[in-house]
Structures are given as structure tokens and as C-alpha cells.
């Protein structure tokens, strides 16, 4: 299931994710600069958070508050191995019934359970992306 969008249509992509995802743990795949964080910013906003959303590249996780509870946003680009994610308590985060957005999930693949939804972002050109919900 896929949707093609531009930045001006990102709300349509967000609605597509929320309407079709089978899990609250979303795994974002895409090359550097594909727009993973931009898409997550729009998701966090749509889910009701008032926080400023930024990539947790150095902190590994950001937490955003919503009326329904926290959203956790992970960016594992800089980790060297899965033990770093274990040390920061990823298992405790994953055990919660809340929205979890993970960039660079391949870095922690063995720690993720079955209840996840893969989102692939494909760059078509400078302004256009294809979002595949796998």
C-alpha cells in the first residue's frame, strides 16, 4: 500500500499512515535526507503534541506529550551495536502501549518484536516521495 506525496501534501501521507498502520510501533526506512524526521514531525503534530519535534540523533530518544500519552521518537543512526539501545532501556519503551517512531530500525532489528509496522520512504526527486506501508 503506497502513497505519493510532496511536502505540501504531507498531511495526506500522515492520514494514510494513521488509517492503515497495524501497529503503534512504526519503523521508518529511507536513505539519509528522505524525510523520515519531517514525516515524524507531522505525525507528532497530528497526534496532538505541542512540543517542538527534532531528530534525536544525539540523544537517541525524544519524548513528546499528547493528550493520549507520550510518543517516543528514536533515531539509531549513530549507534554502533544493539547493546547501546539495551543500555538506554529500549525494551521498557517497547513494552508500553504508546506511539513509538524509530528511524534507522535496522540498527536494532533483533530487539524489535513482531508488532511493528514498516514504512519505507522512497525519494523520487527533490520534492516527491513515495511512502510504502509494508
TrEMBL record:
Its main location: cytoplasm. Belongs to the TsaE family. The gene is tsaE. It comes from Salegentibacter chungangensis. The keyword Translocase does not apply. The keyword Mitochondrion does not apply. It holds the Pfam family TsaE. This is tRNA threonylcarbamoyladenosine biosynthesis protein TsaE. Keywords: ATP-binding, Cytoplasm, Magnesium, Metal-binding, Nucleotide-binding, tRNA processing. It is found in: Cytoplasm. SUPFAM superfamilies: P-loop containing nucleoside triphosphate hydrolases.
Amino acid at each position: 500500500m503506497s502513497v505519493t506525496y510532496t511536502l505540501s501534501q504531507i498531511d495526506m501521507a500522515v492520514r494514510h499512515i494513521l488509517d492503515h498502520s497495524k501497529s503503534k510501533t512504526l519503523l521508518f526506512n529511507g536513505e539519509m535526507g528522505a524525510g523520515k524526521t519531517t514525516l515524524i514531525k507531522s505525525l507528532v503534530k497530528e497526534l496532538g503534541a505541542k512540543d517542538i519535534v527534532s531528530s534525536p540523533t544525539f540523544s537517541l530518544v525524544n519524548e513528546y506529550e499528547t493528550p493520549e500519552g507520550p510518543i517516543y521518537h528514536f533515531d539509531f543512526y549513530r549507534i554502533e551495536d544493539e547493546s547501546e539501545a539495551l543500555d538506554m532501556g529500549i525494551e521498557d519503551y517497547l513494552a508500553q502501549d504508546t506511539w513509538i517512531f524509530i528511524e534507522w530500525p535496522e540498527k536494532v532489528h533483533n530487539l524489535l518484536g513482531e508488532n511493528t509496522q514498516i514504512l519505507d520512504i522512497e525519494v523520487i526527486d527533490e520534492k516527491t516521495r513515495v511512502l510504502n506501508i509494508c
